[in-house]
Amino acid sequence: MRLPLRNRVWLQLTGDAKGGGRLTGANWALATVIILAVLSSILATEPELHKRFEHEFRLVEILFGLCFLVEYAARIWTAPEAPGPGTDWEKRWAFLKSGLGLIELVVLIVTFLPMFIPEVAVLRLIRLLRLMMIARMGRFSSAFNEVLSAINERRFELYVTIALASFLVLFGATALYLAEGHVQPDKFGSIPRALWWAVITLTTVGYGDVSPITPLGKMMASVIALAGVGLVAMPTGIMAAAFSEAMQNHRKRRGKGE
Amino acid sequence: MRLPLRNRVWLQLTGDAKGGGRLTGANWALATVIILAVLSSILATEPELHKRFEHEFRLVEILFGLCFLVEYAARIWTAPEAPGPGTDWEKRWAFLKSGLGLIELVVLIVTFLPMFIPEVAVLRLIRLLRLMMIARMGRFSSAFNEVLSAINERRFELYVTIALASFLVLFGATALYLAEGHVQPDKFGSIPRALWWAVITLTTVGYGDVSPITPLGKMMASVIALAGVGLVAMPTGIMAAAFSEAMQNHRKRRGKGE
Amino acid sequence: MRLPLRNRVWLQLTGDAKGGGRLTGANWALATVIILAVLSSILATEPELHKRFEHEFRLVEILFGLCFLVEYAARIWTAPEAPGPGTDWEKRWAFLKSGLGLIELVVLIVTFLPMFIPEVAVLRLIRLLRLMMIARMGRFSSAFNEVLSAINERRFELYVTIALASFLVLFGATALYLAEGHVQPDKFGSIPRALWWAVITLTTVGYGDVSPITPLGKMMASVIALAGVGLVAMPTGIMAAAFSEAMQNHRKRRGKGE
Amino acid sequence: MRLPLRNRVWLQLTGDAKGGGRLTGANWALATVIILAVLSSILATEPELHKRFEHEFRLVEILFGLCFLVEYAARIWTAPEAPGPGTDWEKRWAFLKSGLGLIELVVLIVTFLPMFIPEVAVLRLIRLLRLMMIARMGRFSSAFNEVLSAINERRFELYVTIALASFLVLFGATALYLAEGHVQPDKFGSIPRALWWAVITLTTVGYGDVSPITPLGKMMASVIALAGVGLVAMPTGIMAAAFSEAMQNHRKRRGKGE
């Protein structure tokens, strides 16, 4: 009775096998573990938390490592269930060489390596890649492709607006460099320095660490801000529209398909 | 002649009874009292005002309390007017156990309790909940349901864009943590700390309490700001579109219905 | 030959007389004078400029005053040309009592009064009202009405979104008052004080004069910023959509009419 | 065999000659050189970089100058290939007098002049104009015209919204000048000074160098920010919509044409 079990495990691990495109229970569990592992690696970068809960962090990392190890082993074990020709070991080797197989190996390494070399702990965030691999399965995959093709269709708009926005950012930086370069040399003393001001102003973030102080600089900055804020927002606006359109198409097709 | 009066009071208290879905005079009066009570509890948190007008605040709170008490009593008294089977006292008990009945009780408690325990005065803002109960009556109720169903229909878009935005916020925080963690350890010394910067930058709030100071950090922050500002705005954009669509449908249906 | 001249002057002063809805030459000239007068009254508030060019400012103000005086006299003189029954003096009195007549009188007063009482010079900005009176003539008037009716049609959406945005601003202020009221009492020590933070954050202005400093406050502020920025922008988004729709209708109708 | 070569060079230099509207290989190469030249002139304004790589900057500028010189010579040489009547030298003179010919001359001058007068190095950014000349060729040209005509069609909306936004900025500045002019005379002491605050607030940049500090000023600023942020964004929103519409039309026409 060994084969049916291997087959059931394989079906649980690969969401594709199910028709509806829904994630299986095992994948939901795995996604939860990965999200917890990502959260743990985020919190572990905080020195105060890390000092206080050093043992706890080590413990959960070992637990996450075991989970990933079990999953990796299960995938290698069940790899022969994949359709197509080839012996069991050929299929296993194919899985090890595949994108998913390599990422799983990397995730395993970054889980255990920082236990010996603590400096590389930040690498654990690579686990997010693993999360994306799960998200790509099932119906997210087709939605993702539709978004990409919608963006591709509007690439001409994107080029033009990115060019316009870049030009405006550069123009703003040059204007303020000329107007305030001699007054605030550390902030506007060169165009690369003034570019920081231009980006932070035209995205309307406006930290306030760099701002013009002369009447001429303020007048120029006012005109550039009034004219530019909308222009710089256009490429992202176009991408948002493309995304929204792709999602509507996706919904319609799924509506018909089901 | 006792019944007709009770019936009229009940009709005034429950807006639903009227066909058009408009609020009754009593409900408008009640809404005004609640808004004034909310304003009073907001202003009372200001120490300077509270010290100067301590007696006045106490007086108006007693007045508001009386209003709520009268309303609560009136609702209990008129509860038997509600359609359906059951004795008068069963209906009264049903009202006391209902959502509205419980909220009214809580509002009464938070109005009188701070007169003895001043520390809990901020609880008086729970009155806002009471205001929402009124708003839910009449035609706001159906509009609200349409908004909810429009958002529910686009939940897939919301998931995807929230995931993308979260990923970008996390990516930005990690990038700046790596770039400036050693230069500004109190601001970028861990990913949780850098997340504050990422959220405030990508929502374009940009307080300026945290901003990169090294050329590498500034370059990374520029790229992240230019690319991310639109992405982070997408979930709210989708919700705004869903709201707008739902409102148009609501208008059309009301146009036909009347 | 006195009547034809008066008639021609009247036609020049009242743009309505011309069919196409275009402003007459006299109105363009007048608009230019008013814009210059507004600019002059703006610049005159700047102490440094005012001290240096005191005589020049006085001179141009006298010139503007003469222009307005001549216009006022011309309108009184030509008032009898208006269609409808009534003697010459009845029509003149009607003009003096009309909105335009009263505003012209006020503009005249605020032009000459600050020459004796300099403190009221800022009143000269009332001239902007005069500019709007001109803008309301001709085709701007019908466009303006269409914008108003488009906004009126969507007043329900406006109510709902303004209520939601107000609630969120209030909720954010309360949350930060509870989280940081004891840490930064001068900034979050009461809900009215925290409201300043909430408005400046949720409009994404983010001056940085007030921002949370505790981890709890930062977490709350992050969530509120991510969720609220889009909500607070919704009422203005709805008004923008109404405006855009009204303008398109206006364009279509003009396209058919001409 | 001299003529065919000259003809081939001319076809490479002028993208127009090719039907599909695509840029030729020579134009792509030229665009790359110009972008590199622009980047070099940006980086050269940074004093630290300039000091360290002075010789390298001089060297690449000479290389860029040679490229532009070769191109200029090639265009003069091949000018007779242009269709139309006239002798070879008449056509060459026509090219020298044309917009492109003059800009190429200016670019050459600003490349070599700063080698003798370093103060004018910033003029090298004029090269961006040259880049735009290339972008105007081919299919960008027709797209650009469509954008211009779409904006032109909506010029009435633009006038109205720009007027409204200007009025709001001026109104906000006046309100804060009256509210805080005596408290912060250096920041709100005149309307021109308060305008800086109004522009930076209503574009939501919000540096924080100027912000109200009195309760009255904060209340006014809150109301103005809540009401104005959307209004000030409307002109750019209209231009973005016009751009988006023009791009869709452009795509449709190209789809039919090809």
TrEMBL record, chains A, B, C, D:
Q: How does it sit in the membrane?
A: Multi-pass membrane protein
First-listed, main subcellular location of the protein, grouped into a coarse class = membrane
> Which stretches are transmembrane?
26-45, 57-74, 94-113, 158-179, 220-244
Compartments it resides in: Membrane
GO MF term (any one)? voltage-gated potassium channel activity
Q: Per the record, a Pfam family?
A: Ion_trans
SUPFAM superfamilies in the cross-refs? Voltage-gated potassium channels
Protein name, per record: Voltage-gated potassium channel
